[in-house]
Amino acid sequence: TDSAAMPWLASLNAAQREAVEFGGGEGGVAGPLLVIAGAGSGKTSTLAHRVAHLIAGGADPARILLLTFSRRAADEMGRRVQRLLGQLAATHPWLAHAELNWSGTFHGIGARLLREYAGRIGLDVAFTIHDREDSADLLNLVRHEQGFSEKSRRFPLKGTCLAIYSAAVNTRAPLAEVLQASFPWCAEWEDELKRLFRAYVQAKQAQQVLDYDDLLLYWAQMMAEPELAQEVGALFEHVLVDEYQDTNHLQAAILLAMKPDGRGLTVVGDDAQAIYAFRGATVRNILDFPAAFEPPARIVTLEQNYRSTQPILAAANAVIALAAERYAKDLRSDRGSSQRPRLVSVKDDAEQAAYVVEQALARREDGLRLRQQAVLFRASSYSARLEMELTRRNIPFVKFGGLRFLEAAHVKDVLALLRWAENPRDRIAGFRAVQLLAGIGPKTAGRVLDNVCAAPDGCALLAEQPVPDGAREGWLAFAALIDRLAGRDGGPAPWPAGFELACRWYEAQMPRLYEDAPVRLPDIQQLARIAATYPGRRQFLTELTLDPPSATSGEPGMPLVDEDYLILSTMHSAKGQEWSAVSVLNVVDGCIPSDIATRNGAEIEEERRLLYVAMTRARDHLDLILPQRFYVSQQQGLGDRHVYAGRSRFIPNRLLEHFEQITWPLPPPGLRGTPASRQAAVDLAAKMRDMWR
Ligand code: ATP
Ligand code: MG
């Protein structure tokens, strides 16, 4: 193809262009390609250009697999590709309608492939998917059945058990090694944990449920069958992966099995932004990528940052330059600015919230929409005070990461109904669904589920189940509802009409289940609206479990697309994104690095990269906020407490030159003192803070 016919090439720099065009024009599919480069250098945008370029060059969009870190990122990438191809609409109208139908997360794509091919590895394709909370619940059930929790009160809690299990699966390391490395206080339970996990795996198989890790595990298992690996690999001519630094062993193994010689494989990432080691990701994947092939992969590096102003980039570079590992990247920006990022001292959480709100409104006055502004934090709970303040002042916001819409109890209730109808063997779903009825407790629920699971086809006649007399009438209506949802009553198609029935039934139960039912009701209506956009129950459940919509400002449903709202996000969920103005909350020791991540050097280094990720999200304005006092609510049994905080250790004194330091609110004029006395006070405070490092 003629590159003059590819109008987008002109907007790329030389290195980006090399990556986009790599392998083109040689008549075949190119060998493996790695783009490794710093934040904001255009990795994601280069990937989008490459996809458009491949399609314009004749590649079949249906045979392109694009793997991103979130569903949102995949959708955004799809839109970008379409925009690019739209430029050719005049001469190649069909290109403007090219759809990428294989784009999503590893887990989402894994689920889709398993629906198709699970039968070939002895799984039933009618599986349901457990989210993390369901998985923990099932593990807990098994734990009780096995009598571990009775044996010792000190036996690890369900969340810890799940974390250990997940770490072992994702790193493919022996249990002993995982315990030693990350959970040394659980090492004494190695034998018990082994037995527990064996029983957990059996329970999942018996109930036909898969947890998140299984989606990768079984995908990898499929790829271990040479014939199947070839077949699945051949579905895709091109496989492209963004954020490769945050993939784990399983994901790398899957990729290599699909494209053993690396032909058609492109991965991009930044080792300085690896922030998911705590979930089994390994930066080795990206570092070892070139040598995994013979001949080795082509490496392209990008050095120009197009996102941030020079002062913001300089500050972020200075933070990452202090890392224990060297990230040999020379990033520069042409976007000059006289404004350095600010280090803002505030008294406490309440003032922090007030400051953020005031800044956001002031910037909106200056013409910057709220959606161009984001507030980032290390842990989801850190935004609680701010959320209150925003609600009080009637400012709409959207929150990413942390507690999600689907984790709300009432939303889970409705999904449990659907899931149980979909898969009667799913014990966790059934247990939750059955107990929604008045007069039915865990005992009856357990009996019903035993009967249901014992039935040869996994669905004993529901109406005939033994329930207490007082609950009988309600039970019959419930049984009819589930049969309707499952399509077992021979009536018209159960979706989406059946779902509306389920919502109506559930709404009638709500006042008994929740004191604040009226507040929760809009979420159910929102769920119904989302459901109506899916063709069937199974797609709906799969998509929602894997990529739940985010929690919202609490008002009915999510804000409409063209509404303006402030973005709140955990640092982890902010990955890959950018905003004109970014405020980072609680840049103090104990928050970043987090108290719970200060066990070893590797964890502290990951926290440093996390701060780097947060800072490099900003295009024009960056505020790092330091409350002098903050309130920690500890999950680790230490109780809630107030803590006097010091500036994060990632910004030691010698980095201060990169920032403008301000105190907010400014002290009243009379108390300001002379410049010299103010400086003396600042120095003294800094000295006292740093005394204990
Ligand atoms: P991150 O590491 O944070 O994921 P990235 O390397 O993926 O960042 P992008 O998000 O692709 O970077 O790009 C950052 C910004 O730079 C985007 O706004 C993008 O449109 C812009 N950009 C990328 N390349 C160019 C270019 N050649 N000319 C102008 N702007 C560019
Ligand atoms: Mg990116």
TrEMBL record:
All copies of domain UvrD-like helicase ATP-binding, residue ranges: 16-309
A Pfam family assignment: UvrD_C
Key word Transmembrane helix present: no
Top enzyme class: isomerase
Keyword Isomerase listed: yes
Domain UvrD-like helicase C-terminal stretches: 310-576
Reactions listed under catalytic activity: Couples ATP hydrolysis with the unwinding of duplex DNA by translocating in the 3'-5' direction; ATP + H2O = ADP + phosphate + H(+)
Keywords: ATP-binding, Helicase, Hydrolase, Isomerase, Nucleotide-binding
Residues reported to bind ATP: 37-44
Family: Belongs to the helicase family. UvrD subfamily.
Name of this protein: DNA 3'-5' helicase
Organism: Thauera sinica
High-level lineage: Bacteria, Pseudomonadati, Pseudomonadota, Betaproteobacteria, Rhodocyclales
